[in-house]
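Changelog-adjacent note: as of this version, every example in the card shows the full chain rather than a window. The one below runs 240 residues end to end.
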Amino acid sequence: MKDKGFTYPAKRAPLPTSLDDTAAVVDLPGRRRHGYAISATPRQSGPPPAPYYTALPPDRKRSFDLAFSGPADSGDDVSTGTGTVRVRRQGCDAEARRALTGDVTVWARMYYTPEALNGRLDAKVPKAREYTAAMSAWRSCMAARGHAYRTPEEARDSLNRRFLENKHRKGSSKEEFRKREKQVAVADGECAIEADVPGAAVRVRRGLIATLPKKDQAVLAELASYQSEAIKRAEAILGR
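Full-length structure tokens:
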């Protein structure tokens, strides 16, 4: 982007949360601050280039878009397993992805296909014995704290409906709702940790991979190999 006359103020991004790190997945500190983020949304900094891009005049924005993404007609459709995504082959973004994976098509498959295959397992997780046992422990834990919800989703949805209803009522207390939201969200998180709900979900999902067709399992193994090589290239670029 610099060679094309633009500043791209990239920042060092935090490492993604490991699904095996239950405390990080639940994020009790975040729940204590924002609850379920219904009444108070956490501040979002946006992608690194957003402030720079927003300040550009219209003609420079068009030039930035062309430099970053390439011409609109330079892309290809890539199959993800449940559909297709359009991938640009030109522009600095494509060059960066090519540097990591060797080909933008490989990057697209590596990024989207596991998510698509993972989606096929969603309906099976709640029916697995280990997960239902964890959820039973979660409900008992929540009931002991005075919250009669069947699932975390039900707790969140119930509070969201209440929030929307209160917006149209005179005299409703936003602070009272926010306090209640945080209480339920924290209790939900504490009970999820105590019952190890996130861990059970991950273990069940990993076990269900064996139920996918052999061709899909082979694709996942192939993409895992690509990802491993991409990580090595990224570490070399960062000098690690």
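Structural remarks: The first strand starts at residue 75 and ends at 79.
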